Amino acid sequence: MDKVILVNKNNRKIGEMEKLEAHQKGLLHRAFSIFVFNKDNELLLQQRNPKKYHSGGLWTNTVCSHPAPGETYNVAVHRRLKEEMGFDCTLVKLGCFIYRAAFPNGLIENEYDCIFAGKYDGVIEPNSEEISDHCWLNLEEISENIQDNPEKYTFWFKKILSDKETLHLLQNYLRN
């Protein structure tokens, strides 16, 4: 049974709860979003497995998940990158934000989401239980696709890319 770390608005731990229950109650908890780029500054996107508990079949950033109780962000991001995409790379924390979204199935995402970025050009071995497809696209292509087909992308991914400050952080990361 997966648990998440419940936090306050300052990301201070206030408890732990089973993941599904936290999403049913809409309680604020820790999460992270990983953005991995290749040498051409294209972002590795994943299409979530349709059987996921929410947002199944939608396209999103490289990896999205939650640190487990007792696990640091740094340990969690590397663990989930290996579990979902079959590789690991150096990751840099760019910043954090809070978002809340209700889904048609009654679940509520209320997350203190920290964004990590990395660069990688090797072999990708996606976990089919997590991911049904993947591709590389540059940020301009992604923005155009989101404009034309917003229903094909996860809420948090659209929120991250529509936030000027966060987009600026990603663009600065790519310049370095």
> What coarse outline follows from CA principal-axis ratios?
globular
The quaternary structure here is single chain
Q: What share of the residues lie within helices?
A: 25-40%
Count the E strands: 9
The number of distinct helices, counting runs of at least 4 residues, comes to 5
Cα gyration radius (Å): 15 Å
Written as H for each helix and E for each strand, in order along the chain, the element string is EEHEEEEHEEEHHH
The total domain count is: 1
CATH homologous superfamily grouping: Nucleoside Triphosphate Pyrophosphohydrolase
Q: Which percent band covers the strand fraction?
A: 35-45%
Average pLDDT, all residues = 94
Lateral strand order in the biggest sheet: 6-3-8-7
Low-confidence stretches: none
In CATH's first tier, which class applies? Alpha Beta
The helix-and-strand class reads alpha+beta
Q: Could you say what the CATH architecture is?
A: Alpha-Beta Complex
Question: Which fold name is given in CATH as the topology?
Answer: Nucleoside Triphosphate Pyrophosphohydrolase
Largest sheet: 4 strands, mixed
**Head-to-tail CA distance between termini:** 40 Å
Task: Please describe the structure with a list of short key phrases separated by commas or semicolons.
28% helix; Nucleoside Triphosphate Pyrophosphohydrolase
How is the topology of this model organized?
Layout: E1 3-7, E2 13-18, H1 19-25, E3 29-37, E4 43-48, E5 59-60, E6 63-65, H2 73-85, E7 91-102, E8 108-119, E9 131-137, H3 139-148, H4 155-162, H5 164-175
Parallel strand pairs: 3-8
Antiparallel strand pairs: 1-2, 3-6, 4-5, 4-9, 7-8
